[in-house]
Amino acid sequence: MNVTMNHIHIDGSLVKEDDRVKYYQTPDRPLKFDANKWCYKKMPDLLTFKNDMFQQGEAHKAQGSTHLNFDFPQDIKPSIDMLQYLRAEGFSLGCVELYMIEAAQLRQLTQQPIQFERVTEENVEDYFTVYTPLSIEYGEAYIEECHRYMKDILSDVSHPIHYYIAYETNKPIGIINVIQSEHFVEIDGFAVLTEYRQKGIGSRIQAAVGEIAGEKPIILVADAEDTAKDMYVKQGYTYMGFQYSALKE
């Protein structure tokens, strides 16, 4: 089955959609960049983008968001003029790559099991033991916003995101988000504490996700500049495409 960036879950509220843009705006989480952004279906010209910047800025300001965030269409690189303008305006340019692997391949990564538990109200603080030091660069207010949101959704059995914690000798050392859809299982928010990296923990966590996925393929996006994508390729993931984005804080 062909997979595109449209299959990647966006943890935000789609408030409007037209033939040009999907508009995500999530007033209860104004600090979460990815929950408040515009996703282009068509590459805008520079004049259109300048107007979009103004329109998004006004909408974000009204709900307490202090950023601008745009995703460009899959497999299209912005023009040189657009890239130069974005840099001049202080945007951070990003590029992510989409990967897919069969669940059976993940299960074969390692035969060494790991203690792997879904996050509940009882162990949610273990999740933040890993999450907080790896996300503190975004600020304490952002961490608090994430904390409130997770506690709110843990009792929602219909929520598509399931949060998991990996333990080593009962110490939380890794986290991952597993997102179930009709045809795919997506992994996101995958992180291991710094002192436990390069020890095979990541492979053990992914093998556990392979068990959860059953027969569904697993998909993920990785930063094009991150060395983690090289690990995914070595593990057997297949490259499926790229996407540029522009973020201004």
From TrEMBL:
Pfam families: Acetyltransf_1, DUF5613. Keywords: Transferase. GO terms for molecular function: acyltransferase activity, transferring groups other than amino-acyl groups. This is Acetyltransferase. It comes from Staphylococcus muscae. Residues 114-249 form the N-acetyltransferase domain. The lineage of its organism: Bacteria, Bacillati, Bacillota, Bacilli, Bacillales. The keyword Transferase applies. CDD domains: NAT_SF. InterPro entries: Acyl_CoA_acyltransferase (IPR016181), DUF5613 (IPR040549), GNAT_dom (IPR000182).
